[in-house]
UniProtKB/TrEMBL annotation:
Pfam families tied to this protein: MOSC, MOSC_N
Protein name stated in the entry: MOSC domain-containing protein
Claim: Secreted is one of the keywords in the record: no
Source species taxonomy: Eukaryota, Metazoa, Spiralia, Lophotrochozoa, Mollusca
Keyword field contains Transmembrane helix: yes
GO molecular function, one term: catalytic activity
Keyword tags: Membrane, Transmembrane, Transmembrane helix
SUPFAM superfamilies: MOSC N-terminal domain-like (SSF141673), PK beta-barrel domain-like (SSF50800)
MOSC domain mapped to chain residues: 177-320
Amino acid sequence: MTVDDPLNLVLALATASTIKYIGASLWRLKKLAKYEFVGKVTALDLYPAKSCGAISLQSANCTRGGLKHSGVTDRHWMVVRDDGVKVNIQQEPKMTLITPSIHGNKLCFDAPGMPTLKVEKNPKEDPSLYVDCKPKVKAMTAMNCGKEASEWISKYLGIKGAYIVVSTENMAKRDVSELVPRPWLNVPETTDKVTFSEVSMCNIAFENSLRDLNSRLANPVSMGNFRPNIIINGSLAFDEDNWLEMRIGESVYMRILEPNPRCLLITVAPDGKRDPNTEPLKTLRKFRKTKPYGDSPLFGVNTAIDREGIIKIGDPVYVLRKPVT
Ligand SMILES: *[C@@H]1O[C@H](CO)[C@@H](O)[C@H](O)[C@H]1NC(C)=O
Ligand SMILES: *[C@@H]1O[C@H](CO)[C@@H](O)[C@H](O)[C@H]1NC(C)=O
C-alpha cells in the first residue's frame, strides 16, 4: 500500500490508531486480568466523629478523604479534652454509644440520657474558632464546634472542658507520609491525606477473618469492635495478608498502605463495654503475626484511595496479589 493516494493515507492512519487503541486496551485488560475476585461488600459504615458510632449505608462515595455521604466525610469530627488531646474509647468506652445521624444541613448526635445535639454539617470557616488539637502526637488545626457541643459532650462523658472539633473541607489535613514512620506495604504518596483517623482514609475488615477469630473465642465479638469502614465477605480467612491493591466494583481503586496493627481499642464492644480479659486482643495475639508491628496483631487493612467512586453493598471486590517470592 502506498500513501500517495489521500484515501490510502487516511486508511493507513486509521489502521495505526486502531492498532494503538487495541494495544492500550490489551495492556489495560492484562492489568485488569490480574485482579482476582475475592468477595463482596457486605457493609459500609461511616464514622463522622472519631471513636463515636457509625452511620450504616447502602452506598457511599469512596473519596480520597474517606467514605462520604450527604456531605459528611468519615472521621472529620473529634472529641478532645480541654488541652486539645483526643479522648479515646479505651479510656471512655461510652463514646461508642454516641449515635450520629444526618438531617438536612445538620449532623446530629444522640446518646443515652442526653437530648439530641445538632451541629452544622458544613460549618462556615471562622478563624476565631481555630484550635490546635492532637489526633496523635502531632498537633493540627481544627475548628471548635462551639459552646453547646462542648457542654453536651462534657456532660455526657463527665469530662470538664471537653469539646468537639471539626476539620472543614478546606482546612489542612495530615500528610500520611509524615506520620510516625511505619513499615509500609505500599509507601504513602504525598497526596495521601488523613483527617482524624490514625493512618488510613478507609479501613477495611473481612467477615471470613472474623469467623476464624470467633471460632477461637468463648464469647464471639462483632465487627463493631474493629470499627471498619467497609466490610467484605470472602472465603479464605486472612487472605488479605497476600494482597497489594484492591478494586471495589468497577471504578474504585485503592492501595493497601499496611495491614492494620491492633491495640486495646478493639477490646471495647459497640455496646460500650470493655472486655475485662482484653479479648479479642489476647486471642488475636496468639495466632496472628505481629511482626513488624511490635506486639500488635494484624486484623484488616488500612488503605489509600487512588480512584474515587460510588461503592454499594453487594459490589464485587477484586485484588492484586503480592508477587510470589
Ligand atoms: C464523590 O466525591 C468526589 C470528591 O468529593 C466528587 O468529586 C464526586 O463528584 C463525588 N461523586 C458522586 C457521584 O457524588
Ligand atoms: C459470607 O460468606 C459465607 C461463606 O461464603 C456465607 O456462609 C455467609 O452467609 C456470608 N455472609 C454474608 C453476611 O453475606
